[in-house]
Amino acid sequence: MSRSSIISTIGPSSSSPELINKLVLAGCRIFRLNFSHGHHDFHKKCALLIREIEQSTGISLSILMDLQGPKLRIGCFNDGKISLATGARFILDQSPDVGNSTRVSLPHPEIFAALSDGTYIFLDDGKIKLIVQSNDGYAIETEILEGGVLANKKGVNIPEILLPISALTEKDKADLSIVTDITADWVAVSFIQTAEDIMYAKSVIGEDFGIIAKIEKPVAMQNIESILRVSDAVMVARGDLGVEMPFETIPAAQLNIITLARRYGKPVIVATQMLESMTHCHLPTRAEVTDVAFAVGCGADAVMLSAETASGDYPANVVETMAKIIAQTERDNLKFLENHDEHLSAMSRAVKAAVETGDIQIVAVFTETGRTAIEISNSRLNAKIIAFTPNLKTMRKLHLVWGVTPFIIDEVSSLSEMRKVAQDILCAHFGAIMGEKVIIAAGMPFRLSGSTNILHIFEIWSELEQ
User: Fold this and answer.
1) Pairing with 281, which of 251, 319, 426, 429 sits 20 to 30 Å away (CA)?
2) Torsion 36-41-44-46 (CA) sign
3) Mind listing the pLDDT tens digit for each residue in 300-317?
């Protein structure tokens, strides 16, 4: 397996057991259930299939529940759409009446108080651009800076303003009612603006699930460090981010998020249009290949496929292609970001020094919560990191973490047991040979979260002291 993970979105094109199995064999270990589409029964069915394939193949798999978040949309028009002329006036108001060429409903009263003169408003993924001329709290008069055809219920983006809306909508909360039913491991929260949004989401979702902050708004970029401190992982969601920020600034924003995520030791996902041309084509564009390689070379823990696997014509081929690009990038040792070891934990620095000075190829991490494996992964070792855990949910979560291969074990209670377990599994499953040196990173007392304090090096032999 490659060190960067592949996330595949399940949809109509990939919801059969045959297709999911093909995606697993092609290299996917994380499956995204996108709650912006589909009903609960569909997502439950997909989750059940994933767990059945996990059971039948013996390959552990992770499920990512992606919440829709607060989607702002306009109302409807008499004829279903209108044409807006650049330079004309257009009104967004709270009236429920059907819209026309001069006005349309904006059924989100909570945002009216936040908009002032000069605020930009984008409609339909940025195709229509407006600027606020006046706002009386009920109707917003705008000037059309970039016109075009506008249809019913198109999306609204307001990039410059911290909007007074909850991180979790009523739909999100209803969707979360099945988070246990679908055995989710990660929950992605959309349109995060502040660290307080993440804290609120955690209070609602609970501690059993890893929380991913989706960075989709410029205001989130302004608060990125505080968001990273309280998140379990972060996603560079380039779709809406590309609408709300000038498109030419997206590469720098992506690089900044990855850099800071590495600094704070949080897994980072790069998403949106990674191999979009393969939705209906056998081959990617050269630009897409370079895009994936750049994300991997910068140290992204995972790259995500959306429509390519959810509704595309060749979902398994797309995953195979993504896996080839990742593998070649890692073989070529392409690196576009420097490692900043000053941000590593003391244990991570010690493990890295031991790997480099002792020419050690395997690090065995014994972990309850996965935190130690994440910390050691952040050092981007040139060694295999095998995470041994008795916790099934921890094992599944760790598929998101760069360079970590998780393995479920029974509980251990002594260092000698760890050595025995590590030797048996490493030789049987990971190609370890007699005489090979292995680092064990663990903690005493055992199974106490946050107590990693042991770095032990041993050589594999046919017999170990009991």
Assistant:
1) 251
2) negative
3) 999 999 999 999 999 999
